[in-house]
């Protein structure tokens, strides 16, 4: 009677901002009647009662409210069967189950009594408990898989960041290596040209016999090859024009008594410094210069540099 009076007071004075806590609602009377009363009370609170109602119960009927009314949700305290103690961890969405018979078995109650209790409790109730156990296991595994997924997600983001950084470093290293290689090729070619120019100059100023002329010819051919290789090395790292100017030919001594003859466009001339024939592309009489095509090379030469 006192409990019913208290419930009446709660129903009368609760507002949409109230929090109602009910412990073992519907207990202390006939289980079936208490369960029915508890279900009716909870449905009344859910329809037009307080903001939140939390009720504890051992009535299996109250656990089914969730499946008929979306305003309800189940939760239970996890129970460690080996230690026979609660873990004080809330399992959200899982209804609690009874452990009375299991605890009695652990406490040494005779099997005959336990078997009779299970028979009286009923196969259906035992199956419900098994379903609840499976739900608890599923809930536990579900949370474990979520934690693993979050771990792998964080790990994949870190690996992606490391991969992007490594790719950037590799590209930067490749650019630096290409630049260093180009610089080395240019320096080596420049040094070789300088040595060959000096060697040619020395040979030209020496005795004018056929052996020295042969050495001069070989040196000039080697110098031309070095120039072409140096230009090819530089073209690998840039798209600059490959038009060359034959500045090295201007260093060759020209006989004072040689008079330049002016060729015409389309004429074939000989470039002694290259020991090659070339086709005249353009003539500039005022500058005493011509532009010729010698193989793959386009050269600008003085008139006195060709015959």
Q: Please tell me the overall pLDDT.
A: 76
| Order of helical and strand elements | HEHEHEEHHHHEEEE
CATH H-tier superfamily of the largest domain: P-loop containing nucleotide triphosphate hydrolases
| Radius of gyration over C-alpha positions, nearest whole angstrom | 51 Å
Specify the number of helices.
Answer: 7
Beta-strand residue percentage: 15-25%
**Count of DSSP E strands?**
8
So what's the CATH class of the largest domain? Alpha Beta
**What spatial order of strands do you see in the largest sheet?**
5-6-7-8
Distance between the termini: 134 Å
Which segments are poorly predicted (pLDDT under 50) over 5 or more consecutive residues?
Answer: 207-211, 236-260
The CATH topology of the largest domain, please? Rossmann fold
How many structural domains does the protein architecture include? Answer: 3
Please give a structural write-up.
By secondary structure, this protein is of the alpha+beta class. It has 3 domains: 151 residues, 3-Layer(aba) Sandwich (Rossmann fold); 66 residues; 48 residues, Roll (SH3 type barrels). Helix content is 52%, strand content 16%. The chain contains 7 helices and 8 strands. The strands form 3 sheets. It has a 4-stranded antiparallel beta sheet with strand order 5-6-7-8, with no helix packed on it. The protein has a two-stranded parallel ribbon with strand order 1-2. Strands 3-4 form a two-stranded antiparallel sheet. 12% of the residues are buried.
């Amino acid at each position: 009677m006192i409990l019913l009076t208290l419930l009446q007071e709660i129903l009368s004075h609760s507002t949409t901002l109230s929090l109602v806590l009910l412990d073992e609602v519907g207990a202390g009377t006939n289980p079936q009647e208490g369960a029915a009363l508890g279900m009716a009370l909870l449905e009344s609170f859910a329809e037009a009662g307080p903001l939140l109602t939390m009720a504890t119960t051992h009535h299996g009927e109250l656990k089914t409210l969730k499946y008929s009314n979306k305003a309800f949700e189940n939760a239970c305290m996890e129970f460690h069967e080996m230690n026979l103690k609660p873990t004080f961890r809330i399992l959200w969405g899982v209804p609690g189950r009874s452990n009375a018979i299991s605890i009695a078995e652990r406490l040494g109650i005779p099997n005959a009594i336990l078997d009779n209790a299970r028979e009286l409790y009923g196969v259906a109730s035992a199956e419900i408990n098994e379903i609840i156990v499976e739900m608890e296991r599923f809930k536990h595994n579900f949370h474990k898989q979520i934690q693993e997924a979050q771990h792998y997600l964080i790990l994949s983001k870190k690996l992606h960041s490391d991969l992007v950084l490594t790719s950037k470093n590799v590209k930067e290293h490749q650019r630096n290596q290409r630049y260093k290689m180009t610089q080395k090729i240019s320096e080596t070619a420049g040094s070789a040209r300088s040595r060959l120019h000096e060697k040619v100059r020395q040979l030209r100023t020496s005795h004018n016999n056929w052996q020295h002329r042969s050495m001069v010819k070989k040196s000039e051919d080697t110098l031309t090859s070095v120039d072409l290789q140096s230009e090819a090395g530089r073209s690998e790292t840039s798209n600059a024009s490959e038009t060359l100017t034959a500045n090295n030919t201007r260093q060759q001594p020209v006989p004072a008594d040689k008079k330049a003859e002016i060729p015409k466009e389309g004429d074939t001339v000989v470039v002694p410094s290259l020991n090659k024939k070339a086709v005249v592309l353009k003539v500039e009489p005022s500058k005493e210069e011509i532009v010729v095509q010698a193989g793959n090379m386009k050269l600008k030469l003085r008139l006195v540099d060709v015959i």
